[in-house]
Amino acid sequence: MTAPAATGHSLAAVDLGSNSFHLVIARVLGGELSVVDRLRESVRLAGGLGPGDRLSEESIDRAVTALGLFGQRVGHMPAGSVRAVGTSTLRKASNAGELLQRARTALGHPIEVVSGREEARLIYLGVAHSIADHPGRRLVIDIGGGSTECIIGERFEPLLADSLDMGCVRYTARFFADGDISKAAFAQAETAAGLELQPMERRYRRIGWEHAVGSSGTVESIAAVLHETGWSRTGITAPGLDKLKKALLQAGKATRVQLPGLRPDRAAVLAAGVAILSAVFEALHIQRMTVSEGAMREGVLYDLLGRIRHEDMRDRTIAALGERWHVDVEQAGRVERTALQLWKQVHKSWDLAGEDRRQLLAWAARLHEVGLAVAYSGYHKHGAYLVAESDMAGFSRDEQQAVAELIRGHRRKPSPSLKQRQGPAGEATLRMTILLRLAVLLERSRSSKPLPTLGVEVDKQSLVLRVPQRWLAEHPLTFADLQREREDLVDVGFDLQIKGK
């Protein structure tokens, strides 16, 4: 997957939030981003979660319709120039796959679901690029439809990040479902939010911050009301929140909420948003909060721009994991070079073309020995677990699982699940796993001496590896390993042939 980076080209970010879907399009001008278009559709995806955390057919239809509108605007844009990201509700929904399949067709581009920590990182990146670059730490609070993200960072780097299971749509359904706004409902919502905040509030207060910043629709709506009513002219304040809460209680019903600066489509979820933000102010002892125009969608854009500039956060994450678990960097580099040399010879014939496939193979090679930090026995399994369960900044859930799966399959008997995987994605995983397995075997000596020139010929279910006959004779262990590999791959319906040249 490649994307344009030259001046004048466009990039787009799609944020599939739990309340609203957003599209922002920007042009790259002088290495910076200039927004040229925005679209927003109120979808209330979180409100469509029913028993068993299944999305209703109506909510799926609303989401697909919204993405169809976005698709008209970005469907023509080249692969890699559009990044679409799903958040809390898509993490939670048991039938998210049904929506994602239809959504990709409607949008015309892949959609990835990110973890809560990754969502928080992207939010912080968007906020940091949208406000003045003052020295000191800042606290960022983003109240979405399904979750609330809390981040402390400095300049463009987050230091702490948490995603909490509370959002304005989710809390509306839980505490204000009938539209009644009562003292009891407010008290219950604030108590529930306080319990969510309790495990992290001490850590945040201990680190501290100089500025508190809010982002996204809920915070923007509250700030707009406080400003228009005159209850706070300098962002959001604790006294201003109290006045807003009293006004909502006086209205008594969401349908009767009419406040200056409030969009009509926000009235239904405002009480829940105020309850959550009040609990945040109380738990973290906030007195005043400014508001950022930037949010997750802007963070996605800047992250995409970084990838194009070869400043990919995912590469930094892989390097940090390797350092943390004391991976042998030189050996990892040897395996990566050999795996990519093999990939280069087969990627067209095996339908593995594209930067995304090359990157997955490279990342897995760099971390294939990460499990040695746990134990040698079964280290491929340990490594897969460490990668699958770590917080990996920059990675979608699918990317993270793909790297873990390659690491899991790089040695010993191939898992039967490799053979059972269906479709092009399953076939690609098997083929990349085979390339990584061969690279590991060929570099088993851990020698700095480069390998001889290797030849590779493939068809659908076979690979012929051509190695100089003399080199094979001088490396009997490698030859024996390759013969065993041939026998192991039979179990997944694959024919490996080793031929001298």
Description:
With 501 residues, the protein is α/β, with parallel strands linked by helices. 50% of the residues lie in helices and 17% in strands. The protein contains 19 helices and 14 strands. It has a six-stranded mixed sheet with strand order 8-7-6-9-11-10, with helices on both faces. A five-stranded mixed sheet has the order 3-2-1-4-5, sandwiched between helices. A hairpin with a 2-residue loop joins strand 12 and strand 13.
Keywords:
501 residues; alpha/beta; Nucleotidyltransferase, domain 5; Hypothetical protein af1432; 3 domains; six-stranded mixed β-sheet; five-stranded mixed β-sheet; elongated
Secondary structure blueprint with pairings:
Layout: E1 10-16, E2 20-29, E3 32-42, H1 57-74, E4 82-86, H2 88-92, H3 96-107, E5 111-113, H4 116-128, E6 137-143, E7 148-154, E8 157-164, H5 168-175, H6 183-207, E9 211-215, H7 216-229, E10 236-237, H8 238-251, H9 267-284, E11 288-291, H10 296-308, H11 313-324, H12 329-346, H13 355-366, H14 379-389, H15 397-408, H16 416-420, H17 423-442, E12 455-459, E13 462-467, H18 469-474, H19 476-490, E14 495-500
